[in-house]
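Run folding on both entries below.
>entry_1
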Amino acid sequence: MEARSSESSDRAREGALPDNKLVFMVAEADRTLCDEVVNILKGAFEGCTVYSANEGSEALKKVRNVPPKVLISGMELGAKVTFHDMVRNIDMDRGLQNLPIVVLSDIVDTEPKLQGDLAKGRIKFLSMPMSRDELIASVKGFLNSENLKNNTFRTVILKGGDTLFSEGEKAESAFLVKTGRLEATHKVDDQVVVLGQILAGEFVGEMAHITGEPRNADVRALEATELVEIPCGTLDLLIFSKPTWTKSLLKTLCRRLREANQKRG
């Protein structure tokens, strides 16, 4: 069967797109389903580039020419290069061997290699008939995992008296205190009111991210303090991927709730 692409083959041969370009590859023999997946991706991810092919050899060629962020593939891709052939060839390419794959099939393949990739989370099977929301969620899950893996968290070092952030500022990060102590204060009628201290192992600045409002306090270091700065864009993902950090966040929120109740009493 002759392969058909939503983008021309010539364009796929132009070479790699910039690293920050969102590229997807759809490999599916059913032309109607293939076009449906392409349109869903274009609608859900603004500005993305989507290549497609209806046969395994053409799909493999395009994946090698312009590596996608995620490959979405059916199980039936023809006899010349089957789905399993395509995956094996991808795995032999050092630059592609961790490529995430969404498989358009509700039948979980029993091949040991695919079972291993499934267990590691590299491959996800999508039940058919395909759900638009499940497809988008699966692709977003892979993209979020890549962002988290590539993210570098900045270490912030403060000496006693240094200000971490000020009341009214826009929140772009939250912080996890590794060592040291900080104090949160709030101005009421030109009077400085101490709200409490933030200790090692606790979060600070997370409330502004949760509420979407500006910082509601001034926070400064009481002594030499080391913190991990976490961009707000990755905080939600971290809560689900780092259990120890989740425990620290819950510990922080529980302590603040307890202190608030005591003040009311």
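>entry_2
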Amino acid sequence: MFLLFFSLFMYEVLHFWPNVLGFGKPDMFNAAPVDMGIKDSKFWDDKAKYHGYDISNNAQGAPEPATCKDFFALWPSDCVDKYGDLHEKLKVLSSQMVAMNSSLTLFVPSTKGCEFEHAAVAVKLYDQTELLKEAGFEPAFAVMDTWVKTRYTRISDIIRLALAHKYGMSYLDTDITFLELRKELFERSYVGAAIWSNAKNAIEISNGAFCLPKHILRDMMSFQRSRILSGGDKYFYTELGPSMFHNVLMNRHKVRLYSQNNPAEPSLDEIARAIHQYGHKHLHLTGHVRKGNAELTFGEIVNTIRRKVGLPELVYART
């Protein structure tokens, strides 16, 4: 455990603070604007042509049956304390939903303070206890009741699967942003894979954005239940989330991987450079990214990255 915390501390020292203090910054990255509309895929099509890919296959967008319909996000409490933060993120997501002719449902356990007026975004109340009963977690309630109530990550890892299974929607964290604005890409089976390091081939499957069929979601919830009931009372941070995705998906299920940014890299130039290298279709703009660009709003971070890549900027409604 000491080695884990020390490694995370050193990563922050080496990768975050040099940028804040103004030294060790990566070179600026600004690509030429791509002649394309906000909903076009020219950037990704040109990348595929450059590499000589067969663009007739499903990986490049050939029609296939949708696994999910529309999108949802989850907020683990009422919206009072984080209203401004949520308002900004939903403003950005609203712009993307409108562009994709889709909609986003924000599920909350309490609607207090959750009065948002964003196009294509709705707030929906859910009953956490009833949802978990429907998903088969009632035998684990005695253990789950011992968890610290203000630490939402563990319970959120479970709730998002239960909601996805119940409603058949595509999930995203509120700090996910889509680059290629074609909803069919995110309504077929996929998970995000964060590329932490190209040189060391370090990739982590993420649970921050996904669309999965119900039989896979059932396997995942079964894994979570068995871990809660049979394991010890010590959990590592990603045990019921990304680590569980690894355990269930690898060697068992066929699911498409969409690359996404290193979640601990705050440099917008480095993020833009990686988009050009890999062709990311979406990004996870985590607290590390936002903390490293504290002078910018969430919407400004998104459009700064899009501008650096050469993509058209999003237009946000005034609210």
